[in-house]
Design goal:
Chain A is an all-alpha fold. Chain A has helices spanning 2-29, 34-38, 45-55, 61-73, 87-122, 127-141, 144-158, 172-207, 210-218, 223-259, 264-274, 277-305. In chain A, helix 7 packs across helix 8 (172-207) and helix 11 runs antiparallel to helix 12. The radius of gyration of chain B is 24 Å and the shape is globular. Chain C is built from eleven helices and two strands, in the order βαααααααααααβ. A two-stranded parallel sheet of chain C has the order 1-2. The longest helix of chain C has 38 residues, at 214-251. Chain C has one domain (33-67, 92-305): MetI-like (MetI-like fold), CATH 1.10.3720.10. The chains are: A mainly alpha, B alpha+beta, C mainly alpha. Chains A and C meet through helix 1, helix 6, helix 7, helix 8 and helix 10 of A and helix 5, helix 6, helix 9 and helix 11 of C.
Amino acid sequence: MWTYVGRRLLLAIPTLLGASIIVFAMVHLAPGDPIAAVMPAESSKAEIEATKRAYGFDKPLPVQYLVWLGRVAQGDLGRSIATRRAVILDVRDALANSLVLALSSSLLAFAGGVGLGLLAAFRQGRSLDKVASMVAVVGVSIPHYWAGIILIIVFSVQLNWLPAMGAADGGGPIEYLRHMALPTVALALIPLGVITRVVRSAALDILSQEFVLALRAKGLAGRRVFTHVVKNAAPQIFTVLGLQFGFQLGGSVLVEAVFSWPGTGYLLNLAIFQRDIPVLQGVILVLATFFVLLNLVVDLLQTLVDPRIVRH
Amino acid sequence: MRRVVILLLALVLSPSLAGVALAQGTLRIGMTASDIPYTGGQTDNGFEGFRFVGYQIYEPLIAWDLTRGDRLAPLVPGLAESWEARKDQPTKWVFKLRKGVTFHDGSPFNADAVVFSYESIKKKDAPHFDPYGSGQVSFRLASLTGITKIDDHTVEFETNKPTSFVPYQVCYMLIVSPTQWQKFKDWRKFAEQPSGTGPFRVTRFVPRERLELEANKTYWDAKRRPKIDKLVLLPLPEPTTRLAALRSGQVDWVEVPPPDAIPQLKGAGFQIVMNSYPHNWTHTLRLDKEPWSNKLVRKAANYAIDRVGICKSLLNDTCIPATGVVYKGHPWFGKPKEIYEYNPAKAKELLKQAGFDGTRHPAKAVQLISTSGSGQMLPLAMNELIQKNLKEVGIDVDLQPVEWNTLLTRWRAGFKTPENEGLNAWNISWNFLEPWSGFGRFFHSKSVVPVSVNTMPYINPEADKLIDEAERTFDVAKQNEILARLHEVVVDDAPWIFVVHDQNPRALSTKVKGFVQPQSWFVDLTAVTVR
Amino acid sequence: MAIRAVGGVGPGDSPGVVDAGRASLPPDVAPMSYWRTVAWRLARDPATLVAGGVLIVIVLSAILAPWLAPYDPSAGSIRLRLAPVGAPGHVLGTDEQGRDMLSRLLWGGRMTLVAGLTPVVVAFLVGAVLGVLAGYVGGLANTLVMRTMDIFYAFPAVLLAIAISGALGPGLPNTLISLSIVFIPRVVRVAESATVQVKGLEYIAAARASGSGVGPIVRHHLLANVLGPILVFASTQVSLSIILAAGLSFLGLGVTPPAAEWGLMLNTLRQSIYVNAVVPALPGLAIFVTSMTFNLLSDGLRDAMEIRA
């Protein structure tokens, strides 16, 4: 098994490198002079020269890539054109906010999804199953940005229970929680649907195993079967949870746009309209790195839980 | 366990906790900017930057009187008590500075500070040159060529020629504290802990999220010391977000509420304040390339726009139709020959004359617009309607939206950069607070980029003559007459698509009292109270 | 019992609903062609039938939009903006520019369906070929292809779509390109995984060894075990593709005004939710219903093909 772990770790490296190449290429995809893409228009000659040297713009492309990679490895993601702050600072703050949102909505999706999925599986065919399955399909099909707008209309404007935008106003943890409530729900809908379906499917599979059927026939059902189902469905559930967490971190762009939640998605959206390439690069690189690592962890955890599953 | 859950739910859903957390007398404003305007002195984000940051933290030598709403805001002494051109050398202006004024960091305001601030904008080789700040404001100071310190409280500006426009340029130069800058020797660090002489000082700066300021209790004008304790600025570029924030009590004041929501805001008890001001919403056309190089096409575009529809139906009467640079009733309006109104038939006719035939040879143009911003009103909705109007007469317009500050940056560089080469127009709102901003920077051949912002470029010897004459005239009544004649020339030439004049709608909660909306782009927040 | 196909298990697959234990063969047990079996099963599931019916209505109305739409989708008078549902002459109201909602929804359907389906179709074709080849050939070629796919897989769908669209610029063609790039790696993974599994199945080897009737058996099992999972997987991605395409327009990166497209309409109408909450909700509702029908159909397909994710 440890060879597998080692192999997986090793394989993560080219993936990361590949992602970095894509991000590096973005500067050169944008129209115009690459220098213009990374420097504010009113920079002094001295600043432009310094940046040229730092980025190595006068050298051939592969060398530029290595220079850039070197700086990135040291945590230097360049400077935002709009705020002129170090990109790493902006990204770090935004990432923290997005992580909080992704975590809380994952928790919601997990709790709801597992609950509904198990309910549906154990009451298969009956009305509870149908309801749960319908909820799942609805969850998977709903455009979360639309759901976010509806939530704002109902809970913020009409009922005035919850705030519509932003994060904490420097008002402490309770305020932060209140601001987080609506975006969390909006972001949780699709994962909730997916998890419900996975759990239901996995649980049904296990329930149809012969020895379970035998147990049930003998009347020894109840907790023993339940535990058995949960234990065996766990690997699949965790896989999906890990992936959905990834989806929420990346897919939060749309929800953050609707709620003005200051996360990576919001930053990305703003950077697009500001044509702030360094910020775009920084956010995408950090998020991609996060995902590769996340996938790695999920795969490894799965192997730990069930060594029978070995991915190639 | 269940009780805990219920308790948590109750805590989360109780709105009352929000109000208790605030200090008394805190004014929270939702701006249309998508980020905090630059706090390092010469601010960005257009006039919204001046309105909430520039003129609150800093001050110019000559300021605006924003205390009344019944007349156009005039210039009054700011950090300078008096100023005049020297009779013997009319290119030199002597400014007598106010005594006893201190910066937020405690250092004294004096002539050195004025020279320092000027050099930070104009002197490229000075160690304290601010490339970013200079880029924002240098084009407004096009006539100023030098400065000399006469004594601790007197400076002398030098201009490139005798011009009456000097006060109209000096009012945009904000005075920063040299002492504070010397602590960092870096404009970015200075912007995080700025120091000016204005009625508010910065206490907390979270990039992209909020700017917190407190009242300057030792502000030199005792009559204008702020009545509120704290001022919070939040960038909220989306109209619906602004509205939601106001309605849910997260802010007390929003700029440009969605016009559709105004009736229900009024119904819910919010105050809607409006006033006319020197504002102009246009498409500034590129004159050296097809299709706008053809005067007939430009006129056609002006006849194709349904301005009344925009004002009444789209914007709920928060603007008035524009048929020129200034509005009717303004001393510079004059008697233009062309009265642009909604006349699609005439537009089509003019296009035919120009050689563009609807389907087979349509006129095509690419216009750069913004997603929100100072004076931009509701750019996406308005531009969609304009696009439709123009399509109906045979002009195909492709809209490219960018963020507001990005649009301004690209505009200042002019049309001829690689990035902007494919564009035919910018959609930027202009001001005509004074003759330079209204006409001088656009219509004089000497204002072509990079000296100032004549990007079109508009070259008309007749306009040059009139602007020069206006500059030489110090008598306001005579100057107005000259400018009125200039206006007639410009309206006839139609270098812009004139669309509307904004009425500057704002929505305030009932807690906000004492605010007078002036006929200006800027506001005085010192008399406002929040209960 | 029919040989159950064990479909490729790869991360990112969205497993469907498996109804174990129901009668899964037609009563006439004489060997039926694979696809007839599938069709028979599809016809027996009420949810699939309803979803299928709705989808046919949606697709037909999109195709026939030029004839069905009462108005030109870009025509409208600003004075009639935001008319509510049921207004005279505008059964679904008007949008913020005064254009008829019903017409724009019909025309918008074309745009959204094209933007949603095309990338998945492209991904299915390209991805199936690439994945099956990689799975069949194995070795270095397989590693190269799969590692390259991993790189793109490292990006969550939305992010990759935004990155590519952000670099290429707005517009429908760029959206199609960027979404195709998003979905191809996923299809490749499923295809490769399924192919590898099938390669190792004993009955294939047995069939070959016995030398008898390899063709039809192999074809049957290939269809079930390789094409099946790929097809089902692709169908599950349609709903995501539609939501993403609309989402890109929502952000200003996809289709540009004044085109009628559901995501773009959702964005421009968003500013009007305070005036009239129903009309702005309509485009979102359309996306939701379309996406749901695709999901229900893909579920039914999965059940009918007895694919276990």
